[in-house]
Structure formats: structure tokens, C-alpha cells
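User: AraC family transcriptional regulator, Actinospica acidithermotolerans:
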Amino acid sequence: MKVVFLLTPHLHLLDLAGPAQVFSTAAEFGYPYELFYVAEREEVPTAQGLGLRASTMWPELAAEDLIMVPGSGQPTLATGPRPRGSTLDRLVAHHAAGGSVASVCSGADVLGQACLLDGRRCTTHHGLQDELARRYPRARVERDVLFVLDERVVTSAGIASGIDLALHLLATRHGPAAAARVARDMVVYARRTGDESQNSAMLRHRWHLRDAVHRAQDQIDTHYAQPLRLTELAAVTGVSERTLTRQFVESTGLTPLRYQQMLRVEHAEHMISHGETVEAAAHAVGFADARMLRRLRARAPLTAEK
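Assistant: Predicted structure for AraC family transcriptional regulator:
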């Protein structure tokens, strides 16, 4: 599988480096990926000031290949890159031939210029969603999600979400174990799904270095809708229940139960915002009935406990 990164002027380095690291790490593990970097000019300035060199020649592409467009560092989509018509035609032709096209952050605007967002669900960085919706009224902009897939047009939110998108594509093609292996090698402890909030507990409570707590969070993140006993979490992490509780609170400001409740409420809020009833959302995220969900939603935000 060829992965072609279309580099536009003043791109964000992490928009490019995150997905590129996923696919290059997968290639190191023996998965069949070949990476290419193309641009309209050989010299490509970045938003961070580091110049890049790219090829102006496109490789021959097949239906199983992927073109990915990293976002730019411009403050608005209106001031972002304007690729030539011939470049946009390549995106359209690849998609029409059965290939996939993807974007990170404001790279969605390039797909919009190619009319690939028309009639499709898409997303971008939360700070650019309103502008994307105005610029492309035929697109259906999904708000506060990490990535969206619609008919081989794949869009993701800002910056680090490109890693989540690339891991998802890897899991789709080679299975979740392959994605987990790459994620672990990159020290990405949790592979987030597309419907996670762009400002979720999975981000707010991962700024620590305790591996046992990360393993417990991985377990809760994956099985948040299921009953999880402290004894089970301790067994997964390899420490005692008392040690896990102490380290969890010191690292996140929350108990494991409180962290699980936070995830349930966030997932329920997302479902409710997309038209589900409170009762249906409560059952879907693991509450026995809607009363507990209503109580937790009525409380102050489930932030770190002092």
C-alpha cells in the first residue's frame, strides 16, 4: 500500500509526522507500506519554520493506496493553501478509481476544494468547523469527533488526531492487534475511536508517566460501559488495589470509578447531542437506568477531585 502525503505550504509538522510515524512504524514491523511525499514545489515551508523537500512527481497509484493531506498553520481556511487544479484533479481521479483520500485538521479544506466533501460527512479542528460548514454548505460537518469516514473520504480533527486516524486505518486493514503494536511502540497508550470528543477525559487525564495507571485507563477506556471491579483493574496493571487507587488519584485527580463515570457521561452526552434519548444513551453507556445519568449530568463537571 502506498501512502502519499500531499504537502502544502506552511503545513503543521505534527499533522504530517504523526500519521507518517504510524505507517513507517508499521512498515518496520513488516506490514506492506511505502511512503511518498509530493508537493507542487520541491521546497515546502512549514508552520514551525522547518523547511521540507518533496518530490514533484506522483507515484503510480492503485485502488488500495491512500492520499493524505496534512493541515496548514494558517489561522483560517480562507488564508490556507490553494492547490492547482491539476493537483485537485489527481485527488478526484484517485477517489473515482476506488482509492481513499484523507485529511488532517485544515487539510479538509483541500478536499473541499476538490468537491470531495459534497454530500459527505466530514470533520476538522473544532476551531475551524464553522468556517468549513460555511465554505462547503453541501458537506455535513460532524462536530467534536476525532475522525469521520464516508465513502473512502476520511477527515480528522486537529494535530494529534491524525495519529488516531492512521491507527484506525491500520486496524481496519490488518486488525486491532497490529494497531495496538504500533501504538505501544509509539508510546500512545490509548487508541481513540472516531467518536471520541476532541476535548475528552482521555486527553485531559493522560499527562502522567505511571505505566500502571495508563494500563488501567486503557482497560477503562475500552470497557467503560461494562462493570469493572477494582480487583480486575489491579490484576491488569500488576499492582495491588490499594497501590492502584493511590497512584490513579495522584496521577489523574480521580478515582478509577470517577474516571469511568466521566467517560460514560461524555459518551452519553455525545449520543444525546446526536438525537438519542437520555434513556437510550444511559443504557448504551452502561447505566442500569437513566436516573444515575441525570444525576451525574446535573452535577458540576466531573473534573479532578481536590
